[in-house]
Design the sequence.
């Protein structure tokens, strides 16, 4: 019996083993037929949300994603040389679809305008960052450590991860038949009630944006960190420190233990070593830390004016793709003990 003739349930079991052994081959196998594509999509984009992690190994980043998106997970400025030419955009210019367009970091806007990889619906954006290497990341602590003359400072925020079950609202003014008719008083009252409910819903949504996720996050959240959300977090600049950013590192399976521990460390040493700062992070399987390092010198850097150039010569600048705003909330500690 050919493999394609197997029942969907049996085929999914076979493909699940392939997901753990060779994710690259599994992704390419979607081209075999529609049956394969449907089964593989369920494995890639649905299973990580509900699958329990039973392995004893440490949580990490999917090896395939780490090899293709290395600079998004760990990117640092080279210590030698001056700051001239350094930009956080360099991490995006080293991505596979950008690095092959032209030599070095000279990636042109016209070359990337119609790139299929930069579409909101691109399949790589839906992959969990820890697929096959750990449980889905449901909480991200963004820890920014800035070195200035006189010591170091730390700022901690938490990324609001949208719910994976959210769906666009459907609205309509006509009934199912599409016919217009007379409206009685009862229907007027229902319309007023619906209007009030819509206002209340809008107010709740605004509170969620301001407070950082609302009830979904208090219950642990239903969404997980995907490659698309990580990309947008960095591309938006919300996860970085602008021009003073010297690098970042994504640490899955960890969280910040306590801000007080940082204060104690800072009281003992004005310039704590990186190793001592890393000791502030403790293990937690479904969490991650985005550790960002920055440095501001005594003098301000000169602002370089952009030269006028033709459309063909404009360099590509990474931007948010997904259309969902990146929302951060103040770090208030972890709910886990």
Sequence:
């Amino acid at each position: 019996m050919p493999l394609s003739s197997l029942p969907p349930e049996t085929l999914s079991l076979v493909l699940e083993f392939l997901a753990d052994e060779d994710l690259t081959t599994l992704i390419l196998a979607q081209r075999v037929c529609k049956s394969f594509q449907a089964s593989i999509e369920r494995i890639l984009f649905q299973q990580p949300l509900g699958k329990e992690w039973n392995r004893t190994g440490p949580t990490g980043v999917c090896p395939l994603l780490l090899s293709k998106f290395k600079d998004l997970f760990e990117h640092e400025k080279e210590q030698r040389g001056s700051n001239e030419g350094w930009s956080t955009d360099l991490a995006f210019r080293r991505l596979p679809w950008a690095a092959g367009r032209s030599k070095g970091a000279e990636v042109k806007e016209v070359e990337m305008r119609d790139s299929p990889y930069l579409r909101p619906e691109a399949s790589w954006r839906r992959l969990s960052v820890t697929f096959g290497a750990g449980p889905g990341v449901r909480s991200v602590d963004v820890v920014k450590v800035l070195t200035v003359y006189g010591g170091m400072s730390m700022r901690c925020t938490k990324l609001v991860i949208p719910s994976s079950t959210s769906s666009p609202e459907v609205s309509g003014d006509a009934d199912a038949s599409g016919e217009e008719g007379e409206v009685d008083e009862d229907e007027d009252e229902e319309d007023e009630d619906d209007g009030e409910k819509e206002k209340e819903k809008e107010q709740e949504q605004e509170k969620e944006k301001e407070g950082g996720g609302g009830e979904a996050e208090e219950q642990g959240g239903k969404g997980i960190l995907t490659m698309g959300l990580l990309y947008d977090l960095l591309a938006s600049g919300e996860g970085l420190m602008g021009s003073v950013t010297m690098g970042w590192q994504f640490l899955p399976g960890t969280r910040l233990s306590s801000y007080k521990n940082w204060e104690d460390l800072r009281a003992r040493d004005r310039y704590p070593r990186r190793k001592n700062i890393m000791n502030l992070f403790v293990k937690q399987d479904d969490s991650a830390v985005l550790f960002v390092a920055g440095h501001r010198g005594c003098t301000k850097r000169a602002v370089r004016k952009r030269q006028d150039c033709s459309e063909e010569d404009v360099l590509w600048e990474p931007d948010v793709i997904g259309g969902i705003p990146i929302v951060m909330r103040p770090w208030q500690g972890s709910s886990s003990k």
